[in-house]
Each structure stands twice: as structure tokens, then as C-alpha cells.
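User: quick one, sequence for these C-alpha cells?
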């Protein structure tokens, strides 16, 4: 079977997905949506640095809606507010196209019935399915760790940490203004603000999905963020981070059940991976406290045989998107729920 695909946005993840579509014989590119004015009208092959495809980029959503396509790979940049892309996604679903997005919507049910109903109804209207996926959120907690809980006879708590070396991020606006690196640690408040709300909503989806699959009702998801100062002047890709200013942001949420931390998800961005706190740490660390006690570490490395600058982190995000296409297309309309076979479930959860 061949699947007709629209690629929506061509940033780092979008281009990785686009090349994946062009590489896979069972996928046929039929449309391309871009945001950048300079990309409008360009051939998809030119954007991907591939041979010409005959598919030209458009910035007009109506042209995309009018296409006959099985699936839209939606890799737009996350925006504040979190709900910015809702209207586009709803329109795509209503037009009969399945949507696989990396820009959130991993588990809209996490935000209550109203948000879930928005996408469920749009899917039902168009006979289409929405799936939000990526590595974290999307795969790490929801599939890898959840699958791992299946070997536990008892499970007390789950600790999942992502450690990101942000020193090679090139965009000064993102690094200094959005992430707050280089600012005064006394004034950077991670407990409030647009980014805090955005991240809070995004990662709550992974935690709530994990809770629902393990039969856990969280009383609350508790934020526990902190910043760490640079121990020396840091020359990073985006500029200079003076000693004493913010060099790391630790985003951490605890899913609290029965008054205790059941799931902790940490996302750490550091401009200095050699800081004593971080030195030698793996990219992902998972600790399950229970019977048995389990520890898992996972790292990734950039491919050495590619003519593109695609990083491991981009492949690892695009992989779950491309690989999900047949399952999402075959799924009933609404919100896609990735199947999980026999995870650990709390006693009484099935009663
Ligand atoms: N869950 C995960 O594990 C995971 C991992 C990495 C990334 N992501 C998510 O995947 C998405 C893509 O990431 P990326 O690294 O490819 O980002 P990126 O390189 O910053 O590119 C995103 C693309 O978004 C488009 N864009 C420009 N202005 C926009 C606007 N106002 N609104 C929406 N989109 C706009 C642009 O498309 P054109 O260039 O085509 O004009 C841009 O290239 C993001 O939402 C990111 O958060 C998820």
C-alpha cells in the first residue's frame, strides 16, 4: 500500500521527516506547507537537498486542505500559547487527513474532556486520526518506560531524566531570551511565565498518559524547577554566558498519587555538560523503584555516514513519526492511543 503524505513545516525535524518520506517507496509526497516566505514555491526536493520532486511549497492552508492525502506530518514550531496550532490541526482533520504532529497533542485528554472533544469531534467529522509523537514527549515515558514497567511485580516510583547539552544551540534569541540562559539566577523565575505554562502543558501529557495506563490517578502534577549558575565564563554557539549567570535550567514535574511522588520527569538543559552536577551523565536515565529495582540508561550518537547535518536527536524524533503512519491511517477516527501491552497496573486498577 502507498500512503500519500503532506509535509507541514520544514525545520530540522520537518526536513528529516521530508527526506524520510522521499526515501520510503511506500510513501508518496503530495503536498508541502511552509511558513517561511522565502521557501514559498520552492520544490520539496530543493528544500530537502534532494532531486526535484514536482511538489512545490505553499503557505496557503486552503491548497493543502484541498489535496487528497492520507496523512499530514505536522512539525511546526511550538508557539505560545500551546493551543496556537489547534485551528490548523482541526481543519486538517476535518478535511479527512490524518495528522501526526511533533508539536504537542500527545495526549489531549490530559487537559480535560473539552480539549479532547475538540480533536475527537474533528476526527469524527473528517474520518481522520490525530497522533502527537516524538521522543520526549511521545516515546520515552509513554512507550519505552511504560513497556518496561511490564516486568515489575511491584512499582513504587518512576524517575525519568533527559539531559540535553544545549551549548551547540545556535539561535541567540532562543538561548538567551526564550530559555533564559545568561540571565540573573535571582530573577529568572521558572515557576511562572509563558514558557513554564507551555512546557507544563506539554510534559503533563506524557505524565498523565503514563498515569492512565498504569491505573494511577494523580492528585496533582507538581512543578519543581530550578536554575544553576555558570561556574566560569562559557563560550557557546549562541554567544557568551558569564560566570554566575544562568547556565542550566532544570524542568522537573512530579506526578503525585496517594500523597507520594509516583512519576518524576526531568528535562535538563545545560550550557555546560562538564558541570560537576552533570559530568558523565547519560542522555536519558530511568530508575524504577519497585520489585525489581531497575536502572536503564540510553544514549544516542550522530550518524557518521550522512551528507546532511541531521543530528541523532532529529532522527530519533522523526523515526516514531514515519513508523507510525500505517497504524495511524488504519486507526479509527479521533485521537490515536498508542497501544501498550500489559504494563504494570496498580492493584485494584482493573477491578
Ligand atoms: N517530542 C519530541 O521529542 C520533540 C523533539 C524535537 C522537536 N519537537 C518539536 O517538533 C517541532 C519541530 O521542531 P524543529 O526542531 O524542527 O523546530 P525548528 O527547526 O525550529 O523548525 C520549525 C519550523 O516551524 C516553522 N515555523 C516558522 N514560523 C512558525 C510559526 N510562526 N508557527 C509555527 N511554525 C513555524 C518553520 O517552517 P518552514 O521552515 O517550513 O517555514 C520552521 O522551520 C517543534 O514543535 C518541536 O517542539 C519535539
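Assistant:
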Amino acid at each position: 500500500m502507498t500512503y500519500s503524505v503532506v509535509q507541514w513545516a520544514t525545520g530540522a525535524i520537518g526536513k528529516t521527516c521530508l527526506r524520510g518520506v522521499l526515501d520510503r517507496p511506500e510513501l508518496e509526497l503530495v503536498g508541502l506547507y511552509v511558513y517561511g516566505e522565502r521557501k514559498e514555491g520552492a520544490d520539496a526536493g530543493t528544500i530537502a537537498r534532494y532531486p526535484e520532486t514536482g511538489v512545490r511549497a505553499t503557505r496557503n492552508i486552503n491548497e493543502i486542505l484541498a489535496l487528497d492525502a492520507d496523512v499530514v506530518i505536522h512539525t511546526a514550531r511550538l508557539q505560545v500559547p500551546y493551543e496556537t496550532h489547534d485551528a490548523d490541526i482541526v481543519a486538517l482533520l476535518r478535511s479527512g487527513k490524518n495528522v501526526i504532529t511533533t508539536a504537542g497533542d500527545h495526549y489531549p485528554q490530559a487537559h480535560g474532556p473539552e480539549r479532547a472533544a475538540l480533536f475527537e469531534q474533528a476526527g469524527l467529522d473528517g474520518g481522520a486520526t490525530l497522533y502527537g509523537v516524538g521522543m520526549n514527549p511521545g516515546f520515552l515515558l509513554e512507550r519505552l518506560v511504560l513497556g518496561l514497567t511490564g516486568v515489575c511485580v511491584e512499582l513504587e516510583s518512576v524517575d525519568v531524566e533527559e539531559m540535553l547539552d544545549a551549548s551547540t544551540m545556535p539561535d541567540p534569541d532562543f538561548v538567551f531570551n526564550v530559555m533564559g540562559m545568561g540571565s540573573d539566577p535571582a530573577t529568572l523565575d521558572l515557576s511562572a511565565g509563558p514558557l513554564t505554562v507551555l512546557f507544563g502543558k506539554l510534559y503533563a501529557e506524557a505524565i498523565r498518559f503514563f498515569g492512565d495506563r498504569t491505573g494511577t490517578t494523580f492528585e496533582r502534577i507538581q512543578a519543581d524547577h530550578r536554575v544553576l549558575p555558570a561556574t566560569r565564563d562559557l563560550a557557546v554557539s549562541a554567544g557568551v554566558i558569564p560566570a554566575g549567570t544562568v547556565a542550566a535550567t532544570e524542568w522537573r514535574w512530579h506526578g503525585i498519587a496517594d500523597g507520594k511522588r509516583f512519576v518524576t520527569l526531568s528535562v535538563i538543559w545545560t550550557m555546560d555538560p562538564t558541570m560537576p552536577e552533570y559530568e558523565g551523565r547519560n542522555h536519558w536515565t530511568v530508575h524504577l523503584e519497585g520489585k525489581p529495582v531497575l536502572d536503564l540508561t540510553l544514549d544516542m550518537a550522530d550518524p557518521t555516514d550522512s551528507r546532511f547535518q541531521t543530528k541523532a536527536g532529529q532522527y530519533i524524533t522523526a523515526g516514531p513519526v514515519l513508523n507510525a503512519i500505517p497504524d495511524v491511517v488504519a486507526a479509527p477516527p479521533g485521537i490515536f492511543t498508542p497501544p501498550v501491552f500489559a504494563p504494570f497496573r496498580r492493584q485494584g486498577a482493573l477491578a
